[in-house]
Each structure stands twice: as structure tokens, then as C-alpha cells.
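Field log, afternoon session.

UNIT: design team B
ACTIVITY: writing a sequence onto a fixed backbone
BACKBONE:
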């Protein structure tokens, strides 16, 4: 029950932050896709950075175990294409669609219905894909710090510096 409560609280907090950052607005979604407004990119990179620090802090304290999934290029490329096409068509990703519905904007329902339809199609196509595209380019369970052969906190520090530099560049460009 404690894990469920933690999930609910963090989900509500994440939704609140998405709404306050205005990343669930349809016009911001389209501007991000057109590379005219980097608010969503800045929010996503900040979320990734906070998650990296939190997960590896808990990992180093021995409070969690990492369960890596294998890196399979075929699956990643196909999944990225499907996600990107869906986002481009409806103007929402899964989290922002749910946030839009939470704000009372019913256009987010079309995105959620599309996701449900896509999940059904994927389930039907899975046996075929599991024997083909989901096996292409299987690199196993890899991490960036494992590939580079350095400690994970060094990678986190480098990525944090890169993200901050990118944020500053976005701000100078008015993005």
C-alpha cells in the first residue's frame, strides 16, 4: 500500500508541475515539435536529470536495485517512430494527454483513445515483431557509464553540465 500511495503522490506532484510549467498546452506541444519553443524539452531534460540523481542516490544507498532492459535498436527505432508519429498527429504525448484531460480539455481524449488503439494493434502484431524487429541490434543490458568505463556520477555531472549549457543556449535564442 505504501508503494501505491507513493505513486499517487508523485503522480499528482508531476501533473501539478507539468501544468505549472505549461507543458500540457497544445500550442506548446506544437511549438516544440516545430522547434520554436523548447519549454517541453527543458522540462523533459530537467525531469531526466532529477530522475538520474534520485535513482542513483537510492542505488548507492542500497535502497533500490537497477533492473536494466536490453538495448535493442530495432525495438527502440520502431518505438521511437511510432511515438513520434503519434505525438505529431495528436499533439500530445501520453503524460501531457492525461494532463490535458485533467484540465478539462477533451482533445486529450483523442490522444488517449489513439494510445489504446495503438496498444491493441501492437499486442496483435507482437508475435511477428518479437521474431523479427524486436531482435535486430540486440546489444544486451548496457549503460552509458558502462560503455565509457567511468563512474555513474561522472556521467551524471557531465550530462547536468551539458543540459545547463543547452538551457542557456535556448534562453539566448529565445526558445
Amino acid at each position: 500500500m505504501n508503494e501505491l500511495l507513493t505513486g499517487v503522490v508523485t503522480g499528482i506532484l508531476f501533473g501539478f508541475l507539468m501544468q505549472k510549467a505549461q507543458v500540457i498546452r497544445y500550442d506548446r506541444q506544437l511549438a516544440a515539435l516545430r522547434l520554436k519553443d523548447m519549454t517541453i524539452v527543458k522540462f523533459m531534460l530537467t525531469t531526466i536529470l532529477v530522475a538520474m540523481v534520485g535513482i542513483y542516490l537510492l542505488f548507492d544507498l542500497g535502497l533500490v536495485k537497477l533492473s536494466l532492459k536490453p538495448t535493442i535498436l530495432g525495438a527502440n527505432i520502431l518505438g521511437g517512430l511510432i511515438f513520434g508519429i503519434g505525438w505529431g498527429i495528436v499533439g500530445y504525448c501520453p503524460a501531457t494527454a492525461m494532463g490535458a484531460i485533467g484540465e478539462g480539455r477533451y482533445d486529450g481524449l483523442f490522444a488517449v483513445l489513439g494510445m489504446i488503439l495503438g496498444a491493441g494493434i501492437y499486442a496483435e502484431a507482437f508475435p511477428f515483431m518479437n521474431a523479427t524487429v524486436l531482435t535486430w541490434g540486440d546489444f544486451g543490458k548496457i549503460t552509458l557509464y558502462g560503455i565509457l568505463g567511468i563512474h555513474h556520477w561522472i556521467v551524471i555531472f557531465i550530462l547536468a553540465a551539458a543540459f545547463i549549457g543547452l538551457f542557456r543556449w535556448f534562453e539566448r535564442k529565445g526558445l
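LOG NOTE: Helices lie at 2-20, 26-33, 39-60, 73-90, 94-102, 107-131, 144-148, 152-172.
NEXT ACTIVITY: expression trials, pending approval
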